[in-house]
Amino acid sequence: MDELRVNDLPVVENGLFLGLANESDFLNAEVYPGEVQAALDLLNVSVLPESHVLDVLKVASENDITVIPVVGEGNNYLGSITTVDLLDHLAEMLGVMRDGGIIVLQVPERDHSIQQIARIIEENNAKILSLSVVPASEGNLEMHIKIDLPDLNPILQSLERFDYVVLSKFQAAQFDNELKDRYDELMRYLNM
């Protein structure tokens, strides 16, 4: 468990999943010469092999576990998914490892249009790598949009022309500096 950095361990007998034991069960076990006698309080939680990654994440989060057992028909133990593996898969799924920038928009829940936002982004020669929507306060939504371009400035200007509220942006620092340099040059030119 230390080597894999997990706090939970599937308990299996004759190929059948019995439950998930927590590290504290083993630490509190009574040790006798040559044997360990533990009163295991097994957690009966698992996922099916065809479960979606978001369902696996939900099970891990709701039960605060570091290992998610995968069981098939008849409660046959097929393997486990660690939270590290789960995070790696989510990162790949959300395009985290790909270059680009992130825009966070605040949009009213009643009239948000993903189609319009996608059109604005694509008109600026960019593609959406991932999009997630999170409920926010006062009937609003937060849209987190990962885009394949590191320079978000043209997209941000287009979104603002359509009255979208940009809560934050995350882009390569060179593009923020480049925009500032252009602005400074314009101001110097105007002051001549």
Question: Overview of this structure, please?
Answer:
This protein has helices at 23-27, 53-63, 83-93, 114-123, 153-161, 173-191, and strands at 8-13, 16-22, 30-32, 35-37, 67-71, 77-82, 101-108, 128-135, 140-147, 165-170. Helix 2 (53-63) crosses helix 3 (83-93). It has a 4-stranded antiparallel sheet with strand order 8-9-7-10, with helices on one face. A two-stranded antiparallel ribbon has the order 1-2. The relative contact order is 0.11. With 192 residues, it is an alpha+beta fold.
Q: CATH architecture of the largest domain, please?
A: 2-Layer Sandwich
Tell me the CATH superfamily of the largest domain.
ACT domain
Strand order of the largest sheet: 8-9-7-10
CA distance, first residue to last residue:
69 Å
What is the general shape?
elongated
Strand tally is 10
| CATH class category label of the largest domain | Alpha Beta
pLDDT < 50 stretches: none
Give a quick set of tags describing it.
192 residues; alpha+beta; CBS-domain; Alpha-Beta Plaits; 2 domains; four-stranded antiparallel beta sheet; two-stranded antiparallel ribbon; 6 helices; 10 strands
